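Entry 14. Ran structure prediction on the chain below.
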Amino acid sequence: MKKVLLYVFFALSGFVAFAQSDAEVANPQLKKANEEKARIEKAEQRKKLNAGFSDSKMLSATDVKNQGMTGTCWCFSTTSLIESQCLKNNLGSFDLSEMFSVRNTYLEKAKNYILRQGHAQFSEGGLGHDLINAIEKYGVMPESVYSGLKPISETSTNSHFAINKDKADVNAATKPTEQQVKPTAPQHNHVKLVASLKQYLDSILQLKPVPENWVAGYEAILNTEMGTPPAKFIYNGQEYTPKTFASNVLKFNANDYVYITSFTHHPYYAPFIIEVPDNFSNGAYYNLPLSEMLQLTKEAVNKGVTVLWDADVSNDGFAQQIGYAYDMSSIPEKSRSKKDMINGEVKEGKIDADKRQLLFENLTTQDDHLMHIVGSNISKDGKYYFNVKNSWGEVGPFQGFINVSEAYFAMNTISLVIPKTALSKAILEKLKLK
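Output, structure tokens:
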């Protein structure tokens, strides 16, 4: 996740280094066929999980992952968006390295922290545009080339739950117990890493002038904790650098993505820098009226385009273990029912831009967590849900996915990253985009 350390460290779905078999290395076509077979099987399984809805639109998505004990949901979710775009554009199925981009973003955060003399956010968190920026500047590589994991002997595989000390554990009742969760593969854990990085930067700031070679010491910590990524690598028999892999294989173009938000304290149809702590790189997002942001997202899904979603998940309306998220802000706490959530009988309040703004300004709604909208479901009584891919492992009845009501989306969204192809001509004109 991001700033909020509202982590759910589920080990149901572990990180592995997805190495290719010898046969696949010798025969790239076999590898491609095996990947396509696995993708189809996963898609069929996902359809079965959503069979209880009257209408489902399941868009192409790669496997659910587990961000482990890290605040890097911004990278997992936006990387998932890039992978889905590759599937949509018939470029193939990819398992991209989140930690290569996380590592590069740690470097960008360090440079920002030094230049601002320590008066800047330095944490694991970020927003969706940070991943887009990282790929544009540094490129990207497959998970099989760089996992960012330490050797198994140095990595804990215990199952943990950790939350922000300043927040109540609002989802405790919906989390699986440790007995239900069996550790499998090594998990990412950046608690020690981030503490070491910040301690190093603070020590550098004590020196005047700042040493010219301070980056070397910083990267040495990254190499120790995450491993050293290769400058070049072989993929399907061809040699690439991270940048040539991004441009030649993924056809990546940062200009293909648009950043969207909706708040009333800035003019509509113009970009502004979202005032949240994890926006360390001062990313600007186009401001739309709430109704238009909601409609744009639904239209994107209808067009077969997935969407990066940044939202507050600290309230008790978000229940990954149940598989649903509802806006309960208008329901008295004593009247909130887990049974109603499971049965889809939650009486949500109306979507209200002014109330949404108030919740943002009084710091109730924060940028807790980023996820990936990969479809929609409509219940038998006509209720619409966004089908959302999370990065907490294969948790809950939908195995890592959660169904988010329109009201929850509207009241809790902080920002979106949307492929430009999903935007209508009218929206493009309003935003003065080509």
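The CA atoms of residues 119 and 267 lie 28 Å apart. Will compare against last week's run tomorrow.
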